[in-house]
Amino acid sequence: MGDTVLYEREGHIATITYNRPEAMNAINGQLRADLNAAWEQFRDDEEAWVGIVTGAGRAFSAGADLRDANPATGSGTFWEIPSYNSLESGMEIFKPVIAAVNGYCLGFALTLVSACDFVIASEQAQFGFPEVRIGIPTIQGAVRMPARIGWQNAMELLLIGERVDANRAKEMGLAWKVVPHEQLMDEAKALAERLLLSAPLAVRATKEVGRRGQQMPFSEAIRFGETMRKVARGTADAKVGPAAFREKTTPVWTGEEA
Description:
- By secondary structure, the chain is α/β, with parallel strands linked by helices.
- The chain folds into 2 domains: about 5-195, 2-enoyl-CoA Hydratase, Chain A, domain 1 (Alpha-Beta Complex), CATH 3.90.226; about 200-245, Lyase 2-enoyl-coa Hydratase, Chain  A, domain 2.
- It is about 40% helix and about 15% strand.
- It is built from 10 helices and 10 strands.
- The chain has helices at about 30-45, 75-80, 110-115, 140-150, 150-160, 165-170, 185-195, 200-215, 220-235, 235-245; strands at about 5-10, 15-20, 50-55, 60, 95-100, 105, 120, 125-130, 165, 175-180.
- The strands form 2 sheets. Strands 1-2-3-5-7-10 form a 6-stranded mixed β-sheet, sandwiched between helices. It has a 4-stranded mixed β-sheet with strand order 4-6-8-9.
- Helix 3 (about 110-115) crosses helix 4.
- It is globular, with a radius of gyration of 19 Å.
- The model has no long low-confidence stretch (mean pLDDT about 95).
């Protein structure tokens, strides 16, 4: 991982930060590769139970760096990084992820945000898919957004290409909460701490059922969920939780499979 993305872990909370503030965190080939590596590190880090993603400086990310990409020809290093190993394009991470959106969140960055479980927006945040305004389609965002915020709200972002502010994003259902700018990271960390009160493997199983269940017929989703329940019952935390409940103590989760 290079300097364009930072990965920091404090306890069980990992923070991934877009780190090209001099370029509004625009995504060039290097940043895209570093971002993919950061998500792989988070996915594989057994001590990282919750993730927060944010941006350094004034922007979350201004989207693809057009100085490093030629969308008309599909050339430039941004386009040469495979998309299949990115969170935007379907990397499976079942740990909870919080987006702390501190400013402009455009294009490919908004696609990433749409893959997160919670979106906390600074009152200074702005969201948009500007691609159609420069003559190219949005692909991953077009796949994700209708299910996330409904057809008409998705089409407002995808087809008009204008930015919306944090309050409109909350009205759409894209942002979960809008907070004063200076409180953004405190709010994100407070939510992460709340998530840590739940058993991490039970959380991951629940998220996986939620994700996969949307793509299955109802009866198949229930069968899959019951299978996941049986798997989760074999974990160490499945014994810790009931014991703590009986003893009226706070459970200390281990995140161990057995």
